[in-house]
Amino acid sequence: MLEKQAIILRRAGEAMERLGLRWEILRSEPRFGAKDADYVLKLHYPGGEVEFAADVKAHPTLLAINLRRQPMHAEMPHLLVADYVNPKLAERLREQDVNFVDAAGNAYLRRGGLYVWAKGEKDILRLETERERRRAFQPTGLKVIFAVLCQPELAETDYRRLAKTAGVALGTVQWVMRDLMNDGYVMRLGRFDRRLVEPKGLLDAWVPAYGRDLRPRLLLGRFDANDINWWRNTDLRRYGAMWGGEPAAARLTEYIKPGELTIYADEIPARLVAERHLKKQDTGRIEFRKKFWRFEEDERMTTVPPVLIYADLLALAEPRAREVAERLYDEEIDGPFREHLARWNR
Fold first, then answer.
1. Contact 103, 78 (CB under 8 A)
2. Which of 51, 228, 270, 314 is least surrounded by CB atoms within 10 angstroms?
3. Could you say which of 193, 213, 233 is where a domain stops?
4. How far apart are CA 107 and CA 16, in angstroms?
5. How high is the pLDDT of residue 344?
């Protein structure tokens, strides 16, 4: 992962030179999941220079960028350095006044006397980045990552157990773990020993990939009803299902009033549909999604794992859902991640 960042930074620097700009690296401390910026760059341009607190990202999305916490270098403007920013995303970033440059020569820079707006260059790194889009972040690989994020100790277990837990083939686990070790999320301690060392960084990488490549495949169907407030007193365990998304977040945090209901099950529960008089509707407020994990859970749990609730909230791309997602992370996800890492620091 750090090598990939270095490549993107170098190629983006070469693209900036073609625009008559040049930068130098004043500080380089890329760390997975850190709140601080990856780099401090000084950009030289005709008539002056300016320093940026820069983050380097491959395959950036607006969601991932919005999730990024503000860098500690509050006195510096922030800069996104990417392999490629497509025209639609470039427009959105400019509208939100987010400075960015990419390796294809696309850029939006506005600081003092500097103003650069270059858009529409082709993705000169497309072939390289497509090869680097590892199988770990393809749909079946995302299932393995989900299991590891929910139960970090699974990164330390044998591959057969992990495959069974994630509901995938043994071969899938082998190449996913290889990719996660190559990317620095999982550390190999010996021939057989491994540990998850960057849970937050892996979560940040998994969420947009899940929303883009796996979540759409899970939709079983949409329904609606005159009133959806029945979710409050309905125990979905009776129907072999679990709450996800907004109702799950409401049960865990009480910070949101669901505008739509997300339900995970192996199949659409016919009895629930009949009892609640649900009507099939493509734009309905009640969505059923396929349960894709196989690990054992507390029988008392009525909601899907917090990691999935977090991802579903962020997939809504709404400010109120994002705020609740951040609360959920602080209250339900960060603690287990810290406890896992603390096991190795004692």
1. no
2. 270
3. 213
4. 8
5. 67
- Does residue 169 sit in the same domain as residue 229? no
Distance of CA 152 to the CA centre of its chain: 17
Residue where one domain finishes, among candidates 104, 128, 152: 128
Query: Can you give the pLDDT at residue 57?
Result: 85
88 & 108 share domain:
yes
Q: Which residues contact 142 (CB under 8 A, 6 or more apart)?
A: 136, 206, 209, 210, 213, 214
pTM: 0.63
Tokens for 12, please give them: 């983006």
CATH of the domain at 202: 1.10.10.10
At residue 108, the 3 state secondary structure works out as strand
CA angle 66, 71, 74 (to 5 degrees): 120
Rounded-to-integer distance, Cα 239 and Cα 227, Å: 19
CA gap 171, 169 in Å, rounded: 5
* 9 and 77 co-located in one domain: yes
Give the chain's domain count. 3
pLDDT of residue 69: 42
CA atoms of 233 and 297, how far apart (whole Å): 21
